[in-house]
């Protein structure tokens, strides 16, 4: 199987890179061919919304995914198009994506206008989320952005792997002793179906547990209970508004 691992951090040697490499090594050990793209090492300018890609498909002599910005996105798209599965490892910034990673997601817009890619069978994708933790707002907006943009580009976000607060500043992974003996366990750690992050209410997208807990608390006019045990106090203050 051909895999692509995209590391969405602007930092070349941060927590996400350490996790992306460990995930890539786990895939390679299982016999898969693994390519890596590190957004810290490539040049991807933000989408300007010019909508030139809206007519690329109907313009003779040019690529149906043509974009007027000539940068490394072209190479990244080729790697994506050649992959059977995609893995994204990304830090959470204020519940969402770092701007460099958001630029990458927005530059997937040419796929939106391609009838070929719209009709293509979706391939599986995984999202590994990295963060320092301690923020009560979670990362559901990041999941929503990744799901939406990857879906346009021919991928179906299947699973979200929550590594928030579980990668040390030096890149050491939580449970590294156990992972040395059972490296494939890395792929199951903190994993939940992406559908757990599908619950949408007027003030945001929430993981299933948080949604039900908040709904119940509103019904009973009681205090809101967070499903994130580390942040209970802060989440009660922030989420129940
Ligand atoms: C602007 C900014 C916003 C951040 N927001 C969050 C957050 O909401 N939740 C969290 O757990 N960590 C947050 N962090 C911490 C980063 O996710 C953390 O430092 C992570 O290690 C960055 O990834 P990297 O080490 O791969 O660069 C934030 C960091 C920055 C710079």
Walk me through the topology.
Layout: E1 2-7, H1 15-29, E2 33-38, H2 73-81, E3 85-91, H3 99-106, H4 109-112, H5 115-119, E4 123-131, H6 140-152, E5 155-164, H7 176-181, E6 191-193, E7 199-201, E8 204-206, H8 208-219, H9 232-239
Bound molecules: flavin mononucleotide.
Question: In words, what does this structure look like?
Answer:
The longest helix is centred in the first third of the chain and has 15 residues, at 15-29. The chain has 241 residues and is α/β, with parallel strands linked by helices. The chain folds into 2 domains: 2-195, Rossmann fold, CATH 3.40.50.360; 198-241, no CATH class. It has helices at residues 15-29, 73-81, 99-106, 109-112, 115-119, 140-152, 176-181, 208-219, 232-239; strands at 2-7, 33-38, 85-91, 123-131, 155-164, 191-193, 199-201, 204-206. It starts with a strand and ends with a helix. Mean pLDDT is 86; it is low at 221-241. Strands 2-1-3-4-5-6 form a 6-stranded mixed β-sheet, with helices on both faces. The chain has a two-stranded antiparallel sheet with strand order 7-8. 33% of the residues lie in helices and 20% in strands. It is globular. The structure holds flavin mononucleotide. The site of flavin mononucleotide (FMN) has 17 residues, from helix 1 and strand 4. Flavin mononucleotide is lined by residues 9, 11, 14-17, 91-95, 130-133, 135, 164.
